[in-house]
Specification:
The protein is an alpha/beta fold. The protein has ten helices and six strands. InterPro entries: CheY-like_superfamily, NreC/VraR/RcsB-like_REC, RNA_pol_sigma_r3/r4-like, Sig_transdc_resp-reg_receiver, Tscrpt_reg_LuxR_C, WalR-like.
Length: 212
């Protein structure tokens, strides 16, 4: 899979390059600012972009705004945002009408490199990888404490749904049966007022709720 990395800190950018290369990705371009990221994507047509949020020229949410533009111009290119914080308004615009091929992970919450690599592959293949904190912050823009009705177990299941895990993967992580996972999913969707038949991807169902 072809990857373009956008990160203005050289040491972190080099670390990402090495990690991705060693795990089988083809890093075809690197960018230290948002305009160069857009140029590299046009030139190399990668399968996925891994980008920070804050970078030159404005050192605000330039990287995230570039990601939104990439999704507009090349919806077939996956975009994984890797940042220290959640830029709520721009993050909501990035997700747009679909989470297909979109990821948003927080740097200080990436505990397992294998999970990170799995997230990059999933986004490159059209899946999603959203940190639970991102989901919670975006929900908070539309409804006061929207997750207050969920039990602790339901919150755990929702967090794993947001990571793009299957029922089997959730069951394996929580050491429960797939049937128990399915029951929790149905309760989550009901409590969040999301139609149970609203789509085949649970992350998209949560995002559909956000857009209401």
């Amino acid at each position: 899979m072809r990857v373009v990395i956008a990160e203005d800190q050289p040491l972190f950018r080099a670390g990402l390059h090495r990690l991705l290369t060693e795990t089988g990705f083809d890093v075809v371009g690197e960018a230290a600012d948002a305009p160069d990221l857009l140029r590299k994507v046009r030139a190399h047509r990668p399968d996925v972009v891994v980008t920070d949020v804050r970078m030159p020229p404005d050192h605000s949410d330039d990287g995230l705004r570039a990601a939104i533009e990439i999704r507009r111009q090349r919806p077939q290119t996956g975009v994984l945002v890797l940042s220290h914080y959640v830029a709520e308004r721009s993050a909501f615009d990035l997700v747009g009408a679909s989470a297909d091929g979109v990821g948003y992970l927080l740097k200080d919450r990436v505990r397992d490199l294998d999970d990170f690599i799995d997230a990059v592959r999933r986004v490159a293949q059209g899946g999603s990888a959203l940190d639970p904190e991102v989901i919670t912050r975006l929900l908070g823009r539309h409804r006061e404490d929207p997750l207050s009705a969920l039990s602790q177990r339901e919150r755990e299941v929702l967090a794993l749904i947001a990571e793009g895990r299957s029922n089997y993967g959730i069951a394996e992580r929580l050491v429960i049966s797939e049937g128990a996972v399915e029951k929790n999913v149905h309760r989550i969707l009901r409590k969040l007022d999301i139609p149970l038949d609203g789509g085949h991807r649970r992350v998209l169902a949560v995002l559909a709720f956000l857009r209401t």
